[in-house]
Amino acid sequence: MCGIAGALNFSKIPLEEVYSLMRHRGPDDKGVFEAKTQGGLLQFFHARLSIQDLSTLARQPMQRGDLCLLFNGEIYNHLQLREGLDFAFQTHSDTETLLGLWTHFGEAFLERLGMLDGMFAFVLYDAKNQKLYFARDRMGKKPLFYYKQESKMVFASELNTICGILKFFKMPLEIEEEAIKFYLESGFFYQDSTPYKQVFAIPNAHYGILNLNTFQLSIKPYFKLESYYQLPKITKEQEALEQCESLLKQSIARRIESSDLEVGAFLSGGIDSSLIVALASQMKPDLRTFTIRFENAAFDESYLAERTAHKFGTKHQSLTISTNLIQDVPKILQAYGRPFFDSSAIPSFYVAKAAKEHLSVVLNGDGADELFGGYRRYVGHLLLPKILLFSALARRLPKPSVKQSLYNYFYRLLQMAGAYKQNLGEYYLRSTTDIFAGFHSFRSETFNIFQREVESMFKGGYSPLAQMLLLDAKNLLLCDLLPKMDIATMAHSLEARSPFLSKELVEFAPTLEDNLKVRGKTTKYLLRKLAQKYLDKKVVQAPKRGFEVPLSAWIEGELKELVLDTLQAPQIAQIFLPKNRIESLCNASYNYPREKRAKMLWSLFALEIWNQKFKEN
Q1: Are strands 118-126 and 361-363 parallel, antiparallel or unpaired?
Q2: What strands lie across the sheet with 315-321, from one edge to the other?
Q3: For residues 87 and 99, what is the distance between their CA atoms, to the nearest angstrom?
Q4: Which residues contact residue 433 at a Cβ distance below 8 angstroms, ignoring those fewer than 6 apart?
Q5: Which of 320, 353, 486, 545 is most exposed, with minimal Cβ within 10 Å?
Q6: How far, in Å, CA of 24 to CA of 487, rounded?
Q7: What is the pLDDT of residue 322?
Q8: Distance separating alpha carbons of residues 410 and 394, to the nearest angstrom
Q9: What DSSP designation does 544 have?
Q10: Neighbours of 268 (CB within 10 A)
Q11: β-strand partners of 47
């Protein structure tokens, strides 16, 4: 796991200048590579977090002949992939395995990237053919951003690194207002977009080829999740259960065995992380586990985590978080290099910080909900044909005042049904983030593109459940949950591994019959059946909570002065939302539930905090 960056056709930038921007991603070593290309100077920069092969021979950037590789991530099955390769390996690092595969297959390896079980982003320089190759893992766990202007290019693991490099060259970025409008509408940046003009992400499950003679960049997919939802379905429950258990065990084993350092696990009260801990503890005695709770939280699942930890004899630490939020929150939000709405980034940051005091590698449960049907709203989506008849009632009923209530759940279902009749893009957002819906509409061309994607998914012949699972994988997971965890963990030089996102499980889950995922009111049905074999009944039956925070309590309490002072003198938010409406939100003039008002304020606050960092650059 590492931080990577590079610059093409700029003047020389010192290694220390770039390393200072990404040292948190890799404090163990640093490296640089320079080459004169057809068009000018190419520089690769690397910050290493040593996990596999701790020797100096595994340092990066790694050169073999005419090739130089800049790699971030982990390939868990890389030693198996070495079999049959005619390559003189000098290390047991996965970086060198990629070079061996490239030497064997050549450029055709790009179409075979689907064979890799792992998380990765890499840039490869081929001096002989004068090409740069970019690639990113299938689900988008590891980020890779790039800035391109004619023949000049900068690329990096983080947006802040790109901003810092361009600042060194005195090339300020411009704000992309269309992307920010979509952020305010949805709570995330749409797929490859960023808040900056000319800065994009290499899309997940894609590779890019840059011809250094023409500077033309072509980007193509090597994997499509949709194709697996079109395969014949597994209908027998016992067969599905056995296969799921076997694949999950294999995935966990790979993620433990492929580390030369100790591996621990995040443990919440939910079944995803609890299942991982149950199986991992069989493979690794004295497994370290970590959970946190917030003071004055509306709910607390730490007691469930402690129950699981006791059952499997893990070395468990349950931490009560009581920190200086006024001091910490702006720093956490600015680490993302873009406005970041998901407030669960705060506890993710703290639990990563706590875990790093003990180890450098942890397992987590990311991806289980989006593959196996873990959200309550999936039940509502399946009930949609019945609910449509009553959608008009939403306009007559009073707004709910309590988020975690049955009334709020059905009120939102009615609102979703009303949106379904009018706009499928809005329907999806109401069912997920649901920020400014009913208060303000930030329509943009990006939203129109997103709307067309949603429509194509709903009209593409997929089952109702598959529609939502695919949309969540392409949006919520890719654009929010995975970036949240990447930045939160890497800010502390901590590597997070996600067994549910293994190659095999990502290919297996779409082939399950829908009623093996959501059955009646039961979400994540198959995983719950598997959990019954290992976990306490209370853990198995616990409702989906997520890594939530007491956001409304924060905004009305400890963070009130910071948030309201920031928004009462906005520097950018008033471009997108009239200032009088911002003031009304601050003054609670509108009759909205506490949680909804808190989400709207937090979205605008995150935008302002990002803008402060942007102006510095």
Answers
A1: unpaired
A2: 315-321, 288-294, 263-266, 361-363, 495-497
A3: 9
A4: 186, 187, 188, 341, 476, 599
A5: 320
A6: 10
A7: 63
A8: 9
A9: P
A10: 26
A11: 3, 30
Phi, psi values for residue 77, rounded to 5°: -105, 25
Cα distances (angstroms) measured from residue 59 to each of 31, 94, 100, 194, 526: 7, 11, 16, 31, 42
Give dist(CA 535, CA 526) in Å, integer: 14
In the chain, the largest separation of any two C-alpha atoms, in whole Å, equals 73
CB atoms within 10 A of CB 174: 10
CB 268 within 8 A of CB 241: no
- DSSP assigned state of 34: E
Q: In the prediction, which pLDDT does 403 show?
A: 62
| Pairwise CA distance, residues 277 & 257, whole Å | 15
pLDDT band at 375 (very low <50, low <70, confident <90, very high): very high
The residues near 88 (Cβ < 8 Å, ≥ 6 apart) are: none
User: 3-state DSSP call for residue 157?
Assistant: coil
- Torsion angles phi and psi, residue 34, rounded to 5: -135, 145
Mean pLDDT for the stretch of residues 210-230: 97
Residue with tokens 């699942």, as numbered in its chain: 301
The residues facing 263 across adjacent strands are 361
CB count in 10 Å sphere of residue 408: 17
The answer to whether 435 touches 175, Cβ cutoff 8 Å, is: no
Mean pLDDT for the stretch of residues 133-154: 97
State the pLDDT confidence band at 545, using cuts at 50, 70 and 90: low
Cβ of 350: how many Cβ atoms within 10 Å?
Answer: 19
Residue keyed to tokens 């998380």: 119
Q: Summarize pLDDT for 400-444 with one digit per residue, the tens.
A: 666 666 777 777 777 777 778 788 999 999 999 999 988 999 989
How far apart are alpha carbons 159 and 145 in whole angstroms? 7
Specify the amino acid at residue 174: E
Which residue type is seen at 216? Q
The confidence score (pLDDT) of residue 541 equals 81
Using CA atoms, how far residue 481 sits from 194, 225, 291, 344, 588, in Å, is 16, 18, 18, 9, 29
CB 145 within 8 A of CB 200: yes
Residue type, 519: R
Residue among 267, 443, 506, 297 at smallest CA distance from 364? 267
Give the per-residue pLDDT at 476.
Answer: 97
Using 50, 70 and 90 to split pLDDT, how confident is the model at 591?
A: confident
Question: For the sheet containing 131-136, what is the strand order?
Answer: 62-64, 67-75, 118-126, 131-136, 206-211, 217-221
What's the CA gap between 50 and 43, in Å, rounded?
22
Q: For the chain, what is the total number of helices (H) and then of strands (E)?
A: 26, 17
Residues β-bridged to residue 211: 131
Above 90 in pLDDT, residue 593? no
CA–CA distance, 539 with 532 (Å, rounded to integer): 9
Banded pLDDT at 588 (limits 50, 70, 90) = confident
